[in-house]
Amino acid sequence: MTTSATVLGRRLGALIVAVLFLGAMPGSASSIEIPEKPGPEEPPRGAVLTGPAAVEVAKDGCHFFELDAKSLWEPGPAEIARLEKLLPEFMAGQKTPSDYQPLHEYYRQYVGIVQDGKKRICINFFHHLFVRENLERPHLNPTIQKILQEGGRAEDFWKREAIVVDDGGAYFFTVQFDPETGTFSQLRFNGYA
Predict the structure, then answer these.
(1) End-to-end alpha-carbon separation of the chain, Å?
(2) pTM for this prediction
């Protein structure tokens, strides 16, 4: 005759085996690579967004409200390289909040926008700690869960999802770049007027 303690022990054992098995599967939370903080000598970590994610960043991040998919263009490597070359000097000349971190620590999302016949690039910045915290707790981010289910790399969630955060201080900010003139405008730090 089996006692309830033995049955409970078998169920607990089966549960532990299942958890260990699932944790060892590719694409599981335990196989997520947590990236190190970007260093000043490495290239910026950025992604050009397209589709609905690009529209969301353009509207909510850079305040282009009258926008649809036809208002978008895809910046190429030359435009991104040029803006990244000019960006450190621009940021060095700006008054920044006390919680602003070194520029190289920020990830970027680039969105090409056409407004009144002029091309702009909206750059959405978010600090590496945001990426790290999302990857350390993937169960709280539906996009990461979906990527894992599809067998993708959770570390790339920010390349697919619009990162739009209310408040967050200088850990999140946007700026616009005019590729024709090589100038920046509309620098906005979250939570600051």
Answers:
(1) 72
(2) 0.81
